Amino acid sequence: MPEFDEKSITAAVIARMSECKDARFKQVMTSLITHLHDFVREVRLTEEEWMQAIQFLTETGQACTDRRQEFILLSDTLGVSILVITLNHPAENGTAESTVLGPFYWEGAPELPRGSNLAEGVKGEPTFYSGRVLSADGRPLPDAVLDIWSGDGEGNYDMQLGEEVGMKARGKIRTDEQGRYWFRSIRPTFYPVPTDGPVGRMLRKMGRHPYRPGHIHMIVSAPGHASVTTHLFVAGSEYLDSDAVFGMKESLVARFDRHEPGVAPTGERMTTPFYTVEYDFRLRPLTTSAAA
Ligand SMILES: [Fe+2]
């Protein structure tokens, strides 16, 4: 009968995978088991702490719904999401950098005509976004799609406002023959990640604030190019230097120019001050992304 001590247990667990047919799975699990055991040995985990961890992960799963992903939030706040993204999408040749998807992506936002107001009835200062989607060498990419979402001007996403609200401040915009896009939305403000669940409790216990700097999300894709999951951050926003999910990248900070009431770039007459932002996204060709 084999018996294991605190050292030999690790090799024994790994040895049980000798019949595993999936080489990559085996590699990942071998490393996971090794690090997990080393971690338990290093901190001399108590039984009480082990049970707390089990309860925490159970609650994290239970907090997930089709509109809330507490596990992604856990990964984001522990810096794992941005680490995976950084490893898989190295910044290169001035192409758009990736950042976290975040917990508020909602698949299936409608495609709207260029120039549409994505934030009809949404609180916040009106902002006109425009720019181009280009290849890495600067060719305009027609038929590129920007899948866009943001919170409102008070930092709330539609998903947080109740079942009946439906999709707000979301939409897909396609580029024209010159690779240009333009649309209207609002100027997003800083907001806290959800703090009413287990991840919020973890942040408080760590002595951390839960805030993300103001940003608008986009997944930019074009035929023959690697899509990029990214944000535009509002220049000057609070918390740019301490994003709770470590997603801030300098290259994604965009200037929001303020204008007095008057004629907007879309030709509409604005009775309130408004903002304009211009940003070009360069996409990597699919071939180099596979090699990266
Ligand atoms: Fe966000």
Chain-wise SSE layout:
Elements: H1 8-15, H2 23-43, H3 47-62, H4 70-77, H5 80-88, E1 126-135, E2 145-149, E3 170-174, E4 180-186, E5 191-192, H6 198-206, E6 211-212, E7 215-221, E8 228-234, E9 253-254, E10 257-259, E11 262-263, E12 269-270, E13 274-278, E14 281-283, H7 286-291
Parallel strand pairs: 1-13, 1-14, 8-9
Antiparallel strand pairs: 1-4, 2-3, 2-7, 5-6, 7-8, 10-13, 11-12
Helix pairs in contact: 1-2
The chain binds fe (ii) ion.
Fe (ii) ion is lined by residues 102, 104, 215, 217.
Count of extended strands: 14
Q: What hetero molecules are in the model? A: fe (ii) ion
Q: Report the CATH C-level class of the largest domain.
A: Mainly Beta
Query: What is the H/E string?
Result: HHHHHEEEEEHEEEEEEEEEH
Number of helices: 7
Main pleated-sheet profile:
5 strands, mixed
How would the global form be characterised?
globular
Strand content: 15-25%
| Approximate helicity band | 25-40%
Average of per-residue pLDDT values:
93
CATH superfamily of the largest domain: Aromatic compound dioxygenase
CATH architecture of the largest domain: Sandwich
Would you tell me which CATH topology of the largest domain applies? Answer: Protocatechuate 3,4-Dioxygenase, subunit A
Query: Which ranges are low-confidence, i.e. pLDDT below 50, for 5 or more consecutive residues?
Result: 288-292
Structural class: alpha+beta
> For the terminal residues, how far apart are their CA atoms?
47 Å
Q: How many separate domains make up the residues?
A: 2
C-alpha-based Rg, rounded: 22 Å
